[in-house]
Structures are given as C-alpha cells and as structure tokens.
Amino acid sequence: MQILITGANGFIGQWLCAHLHRQGHTLVGFDVQERPEAEVDGWVQGDVRKLDDLLSAAVDCKAVIHLAVLPQYLSQQHPDEDLLVNTLGTLQALRAAVAQGVQRFVLPSSSAVYGATGGCLSEDAPLQPLSPYGVSKIAAEAYVSLFQRTAGLHTVVLRLFNIYGRHAGGAPRPTVESRFLRAALQGERLVIMGDPQRAYDFVHISDVVQALTLALEADVPPGSVFNIGSGEATTLQQLAEMCLRLAGRPHEQPLVRPATASTPPSHWADLQHSRQVLGYQPRQQLAAWLRRSLQQDTTPPFAESASSQ
Q1: Do 229 and 111 meet the contact criterion of CB atoms below 8 Å apart?
Q2: For the chain, N or C: smaller number of CB within 10 Å?
Q3: Domain of residue 253, residue span
Q4: Is residue 223 located within the same domain as residue 242?
Q5: What's the pTM value of the predicted model, to 2 decimals?
Q6: What is the pLDDT of residues 209-268, one digit of tens each?
C-alpha cells in the first residue's frame, strides 16, 4: 500500500516509517525539512497549511497518517501557530485526501482533549481542554468527523496518552522519565514539577506504532475514536522512586517545585473499546523499559548499595 505520512521526520514518524517499511509498504514522507531522516520511498518538503503541497504528496496514496503537529509545549506561547498547524493543517490534509481518492485517513489526536476531566477515561468522557493544543486537537477531530460523514472518507482517530521512549537513533528525549533517569544515574537530586501524586498514563512508542498500524489496516467502523495508552496510572512520585531503585540509589525524597503551567488532573486510558474493536494490546511495561534504558546508558554507579538493601 502507498501511504502518505505527514510529519514523517518527527519522533513518532521515524519509528512508524521504519516499521511500515519493514512491512513492505510504499511510503511518501512529508515534512517541512528538506531531507528525510525517516525510512521512506518518496519525499515531499512542504507545509501542511498549504493545500497544493499536500495535493502533490497524496497522489496515488491509498492512506494518510497525519502526524504533522505543533507540539503541545509550544501551544501556550504560540496559540495562533498552534491553530494554523494543528487545525488548518488537518483540514488541508483531509481536503487533499478526498481530492486524491485516499481510502483511509488516520489522525493521531491526544489525551489533551480531555483536559480537566480526571480519572479512568473512556472515549465518551467530557472534553474539557486546558491548553490551545487541546482545543486545536478537538477541532481537528471535528473536521475528521465532518469529512467522514459528508465525503465518505474512512477515518480513524487515536487519542494518544503520554508517550515515552528514545528517538529512533537511540538518543534520549527531554521528557520526565528521561530527566529522572539521567538524574538517578548521575547521583543528582530528582526534581518533581507540580504535584508528586499527579498520575500519568505512560505509553511506549512501540505500542503507539502498533496502534497506528492497526488503525491503518484493521476492519473498524468509519469515524472510530480510540484511546491509546497503557491503561495504568503512574504518579510522578512512583516514577521517581522507580528510577532511584533501578539505578541502585538509596531512597531520597525528590525536591518538589511549583508547576510552570496549569496541569490536568490525574487521568489514564480506559482501553476496553480499543482492545475489543481495534485489537490493541499494550505490550511494553514502563519499569522494564526503564531498566533496559538504564543498562543501555551505563552501568549504574550505585549498584553496590542496591545489593545491600
């Protein structure tokens, strides 16, 4: 199958392209960068806000996976750019897909759409965004639903929770689990920003790639929306303790500092619908990945103290 992947040079895009390439698909990558870092068969340098760029990229494609996005951490500072890239960009990608006869359109959305809604969240939980990013993702989902109803496009939306994992090249990312791992290995005091009891649903990049592949290939109803997470809640305190323990560090209470932005309440994914309809099953365990990641970086310097506990 020939597939257009927008945002192909991004974190998810590089992992997804490598996986789909191994499966034998023909991939057309699309990104603002001039040269591909992802494994693709064709490359289009373009702007998702420009319909003509997307029209040329979608020629002969049977599916589109629309990963191109302005990251959430930039949305508060640049809400206008967030709106243009995340919402207008999705609209233009949908228009190009319909014009070129694409059969399936997959939109990776975000748990940010739930915002102030806490607890174990099913797909019909209230949408109460707390950031421009969450608002733009709701709008993008609405456009996807519109094109499914009015243009007959087979669409699938995946609401991704907190993704962890290394870059495709092996480098760590500047995310909370990577910060904790680095501090634990270097003997530094761990720092928690915000409420230590705030719980996240951490989902590994390999499980996200699994879900995207299923969304591309599975026999699911048009217009389906699925949560993609681990289905488990992990607090920042638990994550910090996990990293210290795996690094062989003696227990030390992390420093707690105020959050720099408003954060949603604890929430995690109800995966019943994803399991039953999409066939999604998370496989990666956070603790196991942390252990492997620590071993990959270096031999823990506190191994002796760990063995005596």
Answers
A1: yes
A2: C
A3: 164-200+231-270+283-307
A4: no
A5: 0.93
A6: 999 999 999 999 999 999 999 999 999 999 999 999 998 888 788 999 998 777 889 999
